[in-house]
Write a structure and sequence with these properties.
The protein is about 20% helix and about 35% strand. The longest helix has 24 residues. The chain is of the alpha+beta class. The chain has an 8-stranded antiparallel β-sheet. Strands 4-20-6-17-18 form a 5-stranded antiparallel β-sheet. The chain is built from 5 helices and 20 strands. The chain is globular, with a radius of gyration of 23 Å.
Length: about 300
Amino acid sequence: MRSLKLLLFGLFIHFQVSCQTKSDDNFTTYTAVPKTEMGTQLVQNSNLIAQIFKDSTYTLTNGVQVNELSYLATKGYSMKTYVYTLDLNNPQISVVASMPHNKPEFAMQPMTGQATALLNPNYEVVGGVNGDFYDMTTGVPRGIFVFNGMILRASYTARNEGYLAVDKQNKVSLEEITNFDQQANQLQQAVSGGVWLVKNGQTVVQADKEIHPRTAVGITNKNQLLLMVVDGRNYTWSNGMNYEDLGDFMRSIGAEKALNLDGGGSSTFFINPNFAVNKFLIRNLPSDNGGIERAVGNGIIITKTK
């Protein structure tokens, strides 16, 4: 009887181990299949993406394209990203620093309101993103700020490492914040950023690993400007990125330089789908109060001369 019990026990253990081994072999494999050039760049140049759910691109106007991507990150997070690609070789395309009510006074206003205030018979307002970090009581930006040639703020903090510059000849660049004093009088527009994400085509290693909604700006060696938003703080919709993953993303789509901008609930990506109507549409899902657009201190807006 004892031998029979031992035999039955041994068969039971063998059955359990066999079942577990078989179950372990049935893991899910993911394949990232891009449909656009930008999606292909991300898959080929980074290890960020496990599976792509949506990869689409559309043109708002000649010289301005939008890519929208929904994917499962290799870290297991759902992600949704939105990217403008601006052809800066097109003389009709410009970027401007925006302020509430299009006035040189620090305040706060949602980006679609700032865009509406910019409407002008001389150019179309194509879309844009939010800009620099700011005081949430006064709207004063954390770093330097130049608005239509007016230097409204010339100081910055140690957390401002660079800035988006548009000179009086409409040349767009990303510059070191320490160069501002010598460049200020040549600038038409300037918006500060936070940490450098990409330098010389290489992702910058970051100590801060926190995941949040993010906004970033980058420039390519083809003279293209990249404006990017990733949604976050919503597990089933999109989780957000840390600085290093954001840098990998920007580098993978061609950025030679890239800067972090204000993120969190400020991250806003909006378009103007019909210039005849000028009804601005928010494409991302801001993290404040279930998607409500936050009033922000400043932004970066894309315009096209008529």
